[in-house]
Amino acid sequence: MSTSERSFARRIDLTSLQLFVAVCELGSIGRAAEREFIAASAISKRLSDLEATLGTALLYRHARGVDLTPAGESLLHHARAMLYSLEKMQGELSEYADGVRGHVRVHANISAIVQFLPEDLGAFARAHEAIKIDLEEHLSSEVVRAVQEGAADLGICHVPADADALQTLPYRSDRLALVLPLGHPLASAPQLDFAASLDFDHVGLHTNSSIYVAMHQAALAAGRSVRLRIHVTGLDAMCRMIDNGLGIGVMPQRAFELMRGGIGQRLVSVPLTDAWAQREIRLVARDFSTLPVAARTLVNHLRAPEAAAPEALAA
Fold first, then answer.
1. Which CATH architecture has domain 174-278?
2. Which stretches in the chain have pLDDT values below 70?
3. What is the structure's pLDDT at 16?
4. For residue 125, what pLDDT is reported?
5. Domain 81-172+279-312: what homologous superfamily?
């Protein structure tokens, strides 16, 4: 590190960075002051000092609050990554002090969480009682972003094709199926092409979910559109909406089978024959070889025995 870089690092104040992030999240110095229990004038002074240190404006100040300048947007990205790293360091060191050997932050999509992770993480926790796992559910695109930014050690999801270069390993595969009320015109089919469902109303997941994106692209390829009647945020909510006559839906076959006990025999699933309906769920990391020991232990537990070496995603 050069002399100028060391000088810059010494002039950056972590408290000021934390307050800057708070102001950005709340859009107001006043609201940030209330949340952080500090005078608004003190926050304003720290932000002014931070701008002076960096030699550029970070915020546009106006009567309604603040907006980020381009430099402010860049700093917010780096500040969040730095604070995440500090929180991780503090958590891991405090746990070592308490005799705990590790802490792994995992972000996963709903398909992995509903279908596979309860059993796999349960078995891991029983075998490695000294390793703590923090699991959060996110969309696949958000899982990848969290790994890229250092907010998660490990991601488990359907990896978007346009992800930046990361490493991935096989975890599980799933197959999508069309879920319909018993007695629906399509319910007796042994299997279906997704295009056959486009004449009917759909209950869909979040527009950024991997399932919805695949449905939308398949409909466009067929020169059609999805007749979406309602969006839901979870697979259990989708089943309840379908059960109450609001449409049909696409979800992983195994997830439907696991949840079917709660809805009796009123719904059926028909496997989809489309190529995109057969999907891979993968483990995602920036670099598996540099993961902490606890995270590598979890990866080894989750990997399929025949898993190949990590492969880089195309940018």
1. 3-Layer(aba) Sandwich (3.40)
2. 1-9, 91-101, 161-164, 262-264, 304-315
3. 87
4. 92
5. Periplasmic binding protein-like II (3.40.190.10)
Q: Choose among 224, 174, 169: nearest CA to 202.
A: 224
Backbone torsions φ then ψ of 270, nearest 5 degrees: -125, 120
81-172+279-312 shares its CATH topology with 174-278: yes
pLDDT, tens only, 98-137: 544 688 999 999 999 999 999 999 999 998 888 899 999 9
For residue 233, the model assigns a pLDDT of 85
Domain ranges of the chain: 3-79, 81-172+279-312, 174-278
Both tokens assigned to 14: 């972590």
pLDDT score recorded for residue 64: 87
| pTM flag (> 0.70) | no
Beta pairing, strands 65-68 & 228-231: unpaired
The fold of the 3-79 domain, in CATH, is Arc Repressor Mutant, subunit A (1.10.10)
